[in-house]
Amino acid sequence: MSLPLINGGDDIENEESKFINMVYNYDWSSTSLGPIDIWDPVLKHVMAKHPDG
User: Fold this and answer.
1) Which one has a higher pLDDT value, 16 or 53?
2) CA distance 28 to 34
3) Rounded-to-integer distance, Cα 36 and Cα 9, Å
4) Closest to 53 in 3D by CA, of 1, 7, 25, 11
5) Contact yes or no for 16/50 (Cβ under 8 A)
6) Exposure of 47 by Cβ count < 10 A (0-12 exposed, 13-18 middle, 19+ buried)?
7) Its domain of life (predicted)?
8) Euclidean distance between CA atoms 47 and 11, whole angstroms
9) What letters, b where the CB count within 10 A reaches 16 and e where it falls short, cover 6-44?
């Protein structure tokens, strides 16, 4: 079974932008990871990857 294609790339880019904004705007300082500005660059990269991409 194949998944339906999304018309145009705009929908995908919009979802990625929403996800990245959600990651960067979350109050990570209240978690065991601590504030995002002290994260290792690799962790920032992994967390900013959209789960579908």
Assistant:
1) 16
2) 6
3) 29
4) 11
5) yes
6) middle
7) Eukaryota
8) 20
9) eeeeeeeeeeeeebeeeeeeeebeeeeeeebeeeeeeee
Angstrom CA distances, 53 to 37, 39, 43, 45, 49, stand at 24, 22, 16, 13, 7
Distance CA 37, CA 27 (A): 11
What is the amino acid identity at position 6?
I
For 14-45, the pLDDT digits (tens) are 777 888 888 888 999 999 999 999 999 998 88
